[in-house]
Amino acid sequence: MPAGDTIGLGWNRVTNWIEVAERRLAENYLTAAGIVARESGGDAALLAVIKANGYGHGAALCAPVLARAGTGWLGVTNAAEGIAVRSALSASGIDAASQPRVLIMCGHLPEDASAIVQ
Predict the structure, then answer these.
(1) What does residue 42 show for φ and ψ, rounded to 5 degrees?
(2) Cβ contacts of 38 within 8 Å, gap of 6 or more
(3) Quick one: which of 12, 73, 95, 112 is 20 to 30 A from 63 by CA?
(4) What is the pTM of this model?
């Protein structure tokens, strides 16, 4: 739901919005990545899950922030979402060689193969 939208629930109306502070998102990622690195002795990587459009927060906003914070992996729902994330990373100036790997977290069909390769 776009920021500031109001939804009607019969007699009750709910107004909500989402604010994403890029600095805080990056700090949260770095904190979690530090814990994973420390607890695993450096043998594990942290997957930043941004599926379902960043859980409604905007994958196109979150992906570049997380990439710049150093994530090596981004988790998406399907190939189409992965393509959108790759486009957002490129549009934000992150070249293909520096982009995190993208993990498709749900099953896929044979007809998705060409999109997955992208």
Answers:
(1) 85, 10
(2) none
(3) 112
(4) 0.80
Q: Sheet of 73-76: strands edge to edge?
A: 47-49, 73-76, 101-104
Closest by CA position to 60, among listed 88, 81, 87: 88
Angle at 68 between CA 70 and CA 96, to 5 degrees: 95
The two structure tokens encoding residue 64 = 């570049």
Q: How far apart are CA 77 and CA 99, in angstroms?
A: 18
3 state SS for 38-100:
HHHCCCCCCEEECHHHHHCCCHHHHHHHHHHHCCCEEEECCHHHHHHHHHHHHHCCCCHHHCC
Taking the CB of residue 115, how many other CB atoms lie within 10 A of it?
A: 14
Radius of gyration of the chain, Cα coordinates, nearest whole angstrom: 16
Residues 11 and 41: their CA atoms lie apart, in Å, by 54
- Summarised one tens digit per residue, pLDDT across range 1-48 is 455 554 445 556 667 777 889 999 999 999 999 999 999 999 999 999
